Amino acid sequence: MKNVLRWFRKGRWVRIFTVYFPAVMFLVVTLFPFYWMSISSFKPQSELYQMGKPLVVSNPTIEAYVKLFSDTMFLTWFKNSLWVAGVSTLIAVIVGALGGYAIARFRFTGRKLIGQGVLLTYLVPRTLLFIPLYDIFFRLNWLDSNWALIVSTLTFVVPFVTWLLIGYFQSIPIEIEQCARIDGASHLQVLRYVVLPLSAPGLVSGGLFAFTQAWNIFIYPLVFISSPDQKTIPVGLSMMQMGDVFLWGQLMAAGVLASLPLVIFYTFFQRYMVEGLTAGAVKG
Amino acid sequence: MRSDLQPESTDARLESRTFWSSLAGSANLQAYLFLTPLLVLMIGFIIYPFVAAIWLSLFDKTTGSAGTLIGLGNYLELIQDPVFQRVILNTCIYAFGAVALKLVFGLFMALTLNQDFKGRTLARGALLLPWIIPTAVSTLVWMWMYNDIFGVINQILVNLGIVDWGLPWLGEYRLAMIAIILVDVWRGTPFFGITTLAGLQTIPSDIYEAAEIDGAIRFRRFWYITLPQLKGVLIITSMLSLIWTFGEFQIIYILTRGGPGRATHVFSTYTYEIAFLGTNLGKGVAVSLFILPFLAIAVFFLTRYLLQTDDTRDVV
Fold first, then answer.
1. How far B210 CA lies from chain A's nearest CA (Å)?
2. Burial track A45-76 (b if 16+ CB lie within 10 A, e otherwise)
3. Would you call B34 and A18 a contact, using CB atoms and an 8 Å cutoff?
4. ipTM here
5. Which of A182, A251, B43, B261 has most Cβ atoms within 10 angstroms of its Cβ?
6. Which of B30, B141, B249 minimises the CB distance to A187?
């Protein structure tokens, strides 16, 4: 009793309302859909469509996962997504590093214009571009191919990566680069051997941002891709239904698997992903 | 190119802005070599399509045809069309509603995470998950949660005796709008939370100490210190989110396809319907261009605050 009184007097109970209660509420609301996805993926068909006890699994099974691989093209979509996201990320980081370095370090005519252009092109919404891009890819004969997806992904990933890297490059002391130049290194060598190693965190942030976005693209593949075997995960999943019926067990299993690569990256590189996320909005 | 190898010119190019005019054209050449891939992408696949979109919107053009120039015909037709008026209203309700809620919840989330408690790092990591997971996946999970009969939301509501029958979350026009906004708020709040938290951590603590000496109570400290200090971050985050939310397609397309009726059609889904299902490319593009006034406002604030607060870059 004494303890309880002391606890109240110290004002600790205030913390329940200001800290623990809101924190728990946020966690429950945020994580519940993931819980629901996971348990749904392990439910047998009979439990999936049963009323009464939605929050527990009585007889867990991997039936949905087995069917996902045997009955659907999930594996093909997964491979396509990996390829598109991987190549886009690689190109985005290279293009962003070259361009970002030029903007950060060179003094040239039109520098300010291009620097601002990078920011502005980042802000152009995707829904504005998909019709004219469709027309361009049609003329390039790229429709229904990976290249349409890679290039369209690059349109909204590269400006951000460049923007992120400009900030990184400018935070590196210029004297290091000057020393390398005096020793006879070319600009490309300075970038390759001096600047890039020093801005590794920026490259990781930019790369993870690019991969996450590429893994996520929806409207472009929906419009540019028509063959089922060229689809990527998001569009493939949204069309995974038998007539009018969604196969919820398999869909939830696919959701778990499609989230895995990002969850793994996020577990190991959380700091960099958060950095990529906040770079645009917060100073520095 | 020869002079480029000399160290003194290097120094000038790297360091001094005042000397740039005296540099040979080779400096420009070097820079533009580095910039070529970036510029090809920006001009060829963003700026050119953007201009092409505006040009295309002046045509009556269907897929495969050459099209005829009709000036502002598509726009005039659209603003007189009651369906499109509904689409404008829907887009505004969706975007402003969702951004306002994300702002409030995000601020609340940041204030919670900014306090010391056990497991804070873990909580911060977990709260970001909706932003990381592919939107198509989480939207499909929500669709399953919204299911009329077997969805978990309706089952819980029925089990608790709040309703007798499950609510038609995606089948009734007001509920459908609420449902798509909820998913967007769920997915977007972490972005607000994390950027606001980063902003909170840049507020110098001595301001609070001074206020404490003056005896300012919690709410007043929040109102007169925290909020004004966060102004920049909150405006930037809201404007970025406004641009994204105005262009949102995935959540709505997957959950409702713009239905029931036209109750949740927004610019992006209506563009898709007119251009690809109705094959009217010119009119479809005109629909998507209605986003421009909102975009312009957001960009105005963004460039103002982003460039003003960012003193690590001298570019822009």
1. 22
2. eebbeeeeebeebeeeeebbbebbeeebbbeb
3. no
4. 0.90
5. A251
6. B30
